[in-house]
Amino acid sequence: MSITELGRTAPSSGTEPAVLAEGLVKAFGDHRAVDGIDLEIRPGEIFGVLGPNGAGKTTMLRMLATLLAIDAGRAEIFGVDVAGRPHVIRQLIGVTGQYASVDEQLTARENLRLFARLQRIPAPSARRIAADLLGRFGLEEAADKPIAHFSGGMRRRLDLAASLITRPPLIFLDEPTTGLDPRTRGQMWDTIRGLITDGCTVLLTTQYLDEADQLADRIAVIDHGRKVAEGTPDELKTMVGASTLQLMLAEPGEVPAAVEAVRRGLGSEPVLSPEKGRLNVALDQADMAADVLIALRTAGISISSVSVAKPSLDEVFLALTGHETETEETR
Ligand SMILES: Nc1ncnc2c1ncn2[C@@H]1O[C@H](COP(=O)(O)OP(=O)(O)OP(=O)(O)O)[C@@H](O)[C@H]1O
Ligand SMILES: [Mg+2]
């Protein structure tokens, strides 16, 4: 039996949003980790929450997953009130990370069967579901090895598999690929896309613009517990240009002259970096870099280094908030 055959049932007609949040707040002491966030996630989409360390991503997910009390505002999942009916909510969502305490001595197959049995699924079904999930997640070969020998990527996949046992219509993935190598990240992306084909809705958090770009239909960018932008990946990228020209001037004092030259030459506004002498210019097309360089040379401004890069999360942030992404440590 495949997951598809079993089907996924949301309690509603399917016209309600998968997630609807209004003014969500979570405060730890006098620090508002989540400071009034609104979200509307449509059934069947992959919705990405993008933000740097400490932005409030995990805190927001934990509130939606009933693992943390909501201090202010409200949330509904498929029309069910999160604070009012937590037991129903828990049947509607799969949360990865929730099963972090898998038994190291048991094999992957035994772990999945155990979880299924703990969900009161009868043994024959539990066996079938475990086999099905192991196949889908590329864990067949390793299925009968104790998970103590599993790599980080295999553990992540097993964790996701475990969260799908009850076939929840909504899956929360908290930074599903942080720390994975590029190949394993790619596999995880395919797995996540597969969830959608299967009829799920996915809410995922990430620190990586490329990941949100690859996976998400829509993205909310959050910073200091607030939403600073929302849109499709393309909409967000056009806010910062399709690519970015990163310039380091030989003479940091020439920054104002360089800004003026770029304005005149390209009609766009460079973004100044806090680093002295560095500025970034958003480009709609990578080959516009030449126009900028010509404009600078005409103005007699010399450059010590230059590169063209895809916009990074840092640039999206700098463009949207006027400050760079900062981590807990640098704050
Ligand atoms: N249980 C807690 N008690 C006190 N402060 C907390 C608690 N959980 C989170 N915080 C604080 O709330 C803020 C948001 O944390 P959160 O874990 O939600 O960020 P995040 O966006 O998930 O970051 P990361 O990318 O590092 O996972 C941080 O300043 C964090 O220190
Ligand atoms: Mg987090």
Automatic annotation (TrEMBL):
Record bears the keyword Cell membrane: yes
Protein's membrane topology: Peripheral membrane protein
Alphabetic keyword roster: Antibiotic resistance, ATP-binding, Cell membrane, Membrane, Nucleotide-binding, Translocase, Transport
Keyword Ligase assigned: no
Matching InterPro entries: AAA+_ATPase (IPR003593), ABC_transporter-like_ATP-bd (IPR003439), ABC_transporter-like_CS (IPR017871), ABC_transporter_ATP-binding (IPR050763), DrrA (IPR005894), DrrA1/2-like_C (IPR025302), P-loop_NTPase (IPR027417)
GO molecular function term, any single one: ATP binding
Signal peptide: none
Pfam family, one: ABC_tran
Cellular location(s): Cell membrane
ABC transporter domain boundaries: 19-249
Primary location: membrane
Family as reported in the entry's similarity comment: Belongs to the ABC transporter superfamily. Drug exporter-1 (DrugE1) (TC 3.A.1.105) family.
PANTHER family in UniProt: ABC TRANSPORTER ATP-BINDING PROTEIN, DOXORUBICIN RESISTANCE ATP-BINDING PROTEIN DRRA
Name used for this protein in its record: ATP-binding cassette domain-containing protein
Species per Swiss-Prot/TrEMBL record: Nonomuraea ferruginea
